[in-house]
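Hi Prof. W.,

I finally got the N-acetylmuramoyl-L-alanine amidase prediction working! I wasn't sure whether to trim anything, so I left the full sequence exactly as given:
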Amino acid sequence: MTTKFRNLIKQNRLQLSIILIFLIATFFLTYTLFSDKTVRVSLDNVVVRTGPALSYSKSGIVNSGKRVTVLKKKSGWLRVRYNDDHFGWIPSWLTNRKFNFSKATNLSEATIVLDPGHGGNDSGALGINQKHEEKTYTLKTAKLVQKSLEAKGARVLMTRSTDEYVSLAARATMANKHKANAFISFHYDSAPENNSGSGDTTYYYHKKTSLRLAELVNSQLKSKISLNNRGVQFGDFEVIRDNTQPALLIEGGYINTSNDFKQISSYHYRKQVASAVTVALTQFFE
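And this is what came out:
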């Protein structure tokens, strides 16, 4: 570099700095404009929050069909720009999807983990006819609950969706890892002698996080299911004990009692359980 050129740079340092800053700003603005991804909001009344979780305060509302610009992703939530100069976080699972109704509730923001008890080489309890295994009916029930919750816009994760073995520790870990807003485990009771037990029970472990949810779910089960309701009880079960999320375990009746099993094995019963859980979770988040 010649002395003359170096002197020229020194004399025009300020102007050159301004030009460089302008070029860098132009580059990043152009990159942002062309790299931004837009998504379409899928429900009406989707709450925009100040952070990526239900615990953050509400900062706005966006409706179905609204195009928003994605700025950042975190824990299943999207930081978006909407209405030109508004910013906030919305659930990613409420974008670019089709729903069969228009109105959303806070349940639509939630992540729910459903846990069909047993599975694989762990059959669970057996019916009077021992070909009827608990694992079969817990999965059937959980799948209908999943369908009902997803119809309301909730993000639903299943600890198992097929007849496979999943350890108890892994079930609780899934809810903790995904910071689920609720965890519900489905089981069916068994008595030492056939036809000697009856009724459904809702169990919780952590009173502070889970008792209210257990009470809401049990109240709905009591009103919708024509079994002897055994109420809300404390239960020392690993899947709810090791859960840092609101968590409960439903024993939905006695699989080795004829009257109970007649209901457990029916589609109508499972539909009512799905309705009970959906209504209770809606109340819980409201």
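The domain at 106-285 is CATH 3.40.630.40 (Aminopeptidase). Does that look reasonable to you?

Thanks,
D.
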